[in-house]
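Example: SHOCT domain-containing protein.
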Amino acid sequence: MMYGYGAGMWWMLMMSVIWLVLIGVIVWAAVRLAQGWGGKDRGQEPPETPEDILARRFARGEIDETAYEAARERLAARRSR
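Written out as structure tokens, the predicted fold is:
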């Protein structure tokens, strides 16, 4: 009598597959957690400040020098409050 050892080769193959899948899931979870610890903003540029937007509009010619200087002074006054 073999006492249940008749399918030994199949179980050995199945356990190998299960271990490979388990190790793959652990590696995948570790990579996902490591990426999440950096935050969602990692690698992205900081948001534009009002001064940046004003300078870009002046550089494109959307506003003239008088409007640029007036807006820049208002922003500086607002920032100093």
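The two ends are 91 Å apart (CA to CA).
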